[in-house]
Write a structure and sequence with these properties.
Layout (H helix, E strand, L loop, with lengths): L1 H19 L10 E5 L2 E4 H14 L7 H23 L6 H30 L4 H10 L2 E10 L2 H7 L11 E7 L5 H4 L9 E6 L2 E12 L5 H31 L6 H9 L6
Antiparallel strand pairs: 1-2, 3-4, 3-6, 5-6
Amino acid sequence: MRKYILYALFPVVLAAIIMGCGNKEDLKGDVIATVNGEPVYAKDVEWSIELNKKRDPMFKLTPLTFKEQVDMIIDKKLLIQEARKEKLDRTERFVSTIQSFWEQTLIRDLMDQRSRNIVSSIKVSESEIEGYYKNISHQKVFQVLRTADKEKVSRLVLKDPKDIEWEETVGPITYDDASAVMKKAFAFSEGRMKVIEDGGTYFLFFVKSDKSIPLGPLADIRNKIGEKIMNDRKNEMFDGWLGSVRRKATIDINSSVMKGMSSKYEDQE
């Protein structure tokens, strides 16, 4: 039973410690209890209740479960106090765990916020839905070659596809299963060869085969297609935003360390 309580308390303990590192003004309010002089705020209990509701949809708030939440937070306070007495809050493992939890929470909240902003700006047109419908009605096989050399790919695109040493053959593959850059090649018909640039890499695509797939009426899947387009656009815009942030940042790579670490994995390929 004690082991179960410890597991249940762990995420609450982590969050409480992180909250404790923030602005104390945010925690002011009604004090529901004190533990060795340390206050337990009503906000702490409310937050714990909301967390339990998210973790367990069957959770019901009653006078009994409310008291259990208060007791759990009191136990949490006692455990933290005892851990501090043992100076466990100064260990490298503890600090690393807190930092990782904090970073993941910040990244998740940022991505949620950016996604909401992006979605509110996206409008899906009827022509986009019809174009998507057309693309998913095909299953294709691609021969692919990628390079950072623009001049090389410019020469290759003029050659007969049979004379090119392709990097890989992909497919049969549907539009929904294709990568973002490969989706751009779905507009090409069988026998066509085209260069697509993406992030400084040049992709040479050759459509080796193109097979039609029977679909139901567009009206039956219009909403689903709209959602997929929205999701693709959201991911594309988020990647674009992150790329912009990266370009503005000052990033220094230690090439000697990078090369040394990278070489460890060469034999594993």
